[in-house]
Design brief:
The protein is of the alpha/beta class and 468 residues long. Helix content is 37%, strand content 16%. It has helices spanning 3-13, 39-62, 72-78, 81-84, 118-128, 134-141, 146-155, 166-171, 173-179, 217-227, 244-250, 264-276, 296-302, 327-333, 336-344, 356-379, 389-397; strands spanning 24-27, 68-71, 86-87, 90-91, 101-104, 110-113, 160-162, 185-190, 208-212, 231-236, 254-258, 279-282, 307-312, 382-388, 420-423, 430-433, 437-439. It has a seven-stranded mixed sheet with strand order 8-14-13-12-9-10-11, sandwiched between helices. A four-stranded antiparallel sheet has the order 4-3-16-15. A three-stranded mixed sheet has the order 1-2-17. The two termini are 39 Å apart. The relative contact order is 0.19.
């Protein structure tokens, strides 16, 4: 599918004005990363959708149109921005745990384990009854069937998936549920009067966002909203595990505070922040945050006019709706690893050249947020945006395949220096990928430096500092 057609399908699917598509310019062509899938198209179309939605908010504020341009090479590089991150000129440590990855089971099937969080690692070792050693895990899995291990892991609250082909995923009950969903859903969940956008000099100026997400997809959403001027407050807690390189890369533009939602005082403080917020973004398993009092309907009752965003692994429909997951696992379960391996002519699972499900989900979330904000400004209401990694994967799959795409050179740091920028941060001097969307009137930029988790107070600041 041509990138402009992919963008137009997203735009029209969300009910956005057709005329806006005339203001966007998409340059470049596939392949830009080594893959048989159209990952460059996915990057360009999803980033452009978010940028075009920002331009539409600007039009609502000012009555003025602006041009939006996204280059495919730049977008694809931003789709794996964490790979190019440097602090004081030095790459960060590899975030993957030593037993994470793909293994062949005793029945000949493959499974992928995700053990980057300590509790997932320890739980998997307990389930397999083996040491923290790859050879030991291989021996243990020789006694398992792939699907049985996947099921046992899910029942134990762990994260592992069996590798399936596209045909097997399409026949699976969860695959069928995902196939029935669009790339994202935007639903009105409550009544509220129209809320005009506040006066500001950027598309999202004056918009306050609570970001309760970790790893890549949700944080990329918050980072994108911050790039267009939103005041984004990342909310985490000391007991929650994190992956430092991702914290640094996706923390650009955000405030960061710590609130323990296990504590009644913490829930009270989050409620007070919700009263001030325009957008609430969360990546808890479906239904989990409602037990703390912050589900979508609960938030809409407390804060009429809220734009509430739910991120999940496998979607809000189907038997796996409540299942934990990460990009690499959803790739494995839903057919990408098998299809990419087949294209490469190899027997073992082959991953995509970036966390494409994560990154596309993040930009689709930002697109949904800004679409909902436009509707709130013109017709009122509270809104619920839902995106999942599996839905993003299904969307990418629908973009088609790239003949000989795997022969594309894999761009290394020296190949992308023209797409990087330097800035101060709470970790040292950052070298990181610039945002790929170019806006003719409101250039994207991050006004706040990336900082360690929990740096700021439990409040929205009123005046951001000048960008470094």
């Amino acid at each position: 599918m041509q990138p402009i057609n992919a963008l137009a399908a997203l735009w029209r699917g969300a009910g956005r004005p057709e005329s806006a598509l005339e203001t966007v310019e998409l340059t470049g062509s596939e392949p830009v990363l080594p893959s048989s899938f159209a990952v460059g198209t996915a990057a360009q179309a999803s980033i452009a959708a978010a940028a075009l939605a920002a331009a539409e908010l600007w039009r609502l504020r000012t009555g003025r149109l602006q041009r939006v341009a996204v280059d495919m090479r730049h977008a694809a590089v931003e789709f794996r921005s964490e790979r190019y991150l440097r602090v004081d000129g030095t790459p960060l440590p590899e975030p993957w745990d030593k037993i994470a990855g793909a293994y062949r089971c005793g029945d000949g099937g493959w499974v992928r384990l995700h053990t980057n969080f300590p509790h997932h690692r320890d739980g998997m070792l307990k389930l397999l009854r083996c040491r923290h050693d790859r050879a030991a895990v291989e021996r243990a899995l020789a006694g398992w069937e792939a699907v049985a291990l996947e099921t046992a892991a899910a029942e134990a609250g762990l994260v592992a998936t069996a590798m399936r082909s596209f045909a097997q995923w399409d026949a699976h009950s969860q695959g069928r549920a995902v196939a029935a969903l669009p790339a994202l859903t935007i639903e009105r969940i409550g009544d509220a009067p129209p809320l005009p956008l506040p006066r500001a000099d950027r598309p999202l100026g004056g918009i306050r966002v609570l970001d309760l997400t970790r790893v890549i997809a949700g944080p990329v959403c918050g980072r994108t909203l911050a790039a267009h001027g939103a005041e984004v407050l990342l909310v985490t807690a000391a007991h929650l595990p994190s992956i430092p390189p991702l914290v640094i890369d996706t923390g650009r533009g955000k405030l960061s505070t710590s609130i323990d939602l296990r504590d009644p005082a913490g829930r009270e403080r989050l409620g007070a922040l919700l009263d001030e917020a325009d957008v609430f973004v969360q990546g808890y398993r479906p239904g989990a945050i409602a037990t703390l009092g912050f589900g979508p309907e609960q938030a809409a009752r407390r804060r009429p006019g809220i734009v509430y965003v739910s991120l999940s692994a496998y979607g809000h429909e189907g038997p796996w709706a409540g299942r934990r997951g990460f990009d690499s696992l959803v790739q494995t379960a839903s057919g990408f690893n098998a299809a990419e391996a087949e294209a490469a002519g190899i027997a073992q699972p082959k991953v995509l050249p970036c966390q494409a499900l994560d990154h596309s989900a993040g930009y689709l979330m930002a697109f949904g947020v800004m679409t909902a904000l436009a509707r709130r400004a013109t017709e009122g209401g509270s809104w619920h945006v839902r995106v999942s990694l599996a839905q993003a994967g299904r969307w990418i799959r629908g973009l088609g395949r790239i003949p000989n795409g795997l022969s594309c050179a894999d761009p290394h740091l020296d190949d992308v220096l023209d797409l990087l920028e330097e800035s101060a941060s709470g970790f040292g001097r950052l070298t990181a990928v610039r945002h790929a969307a170019q806006m003719s009137e409101t250039p994207t930029r991050w006004m706040r430096p990336s900082v360690p988790l929990g740096t700021h107070s439990q409040s929205f600041a009123t005046k951001p500092p000048e960008a470094a």
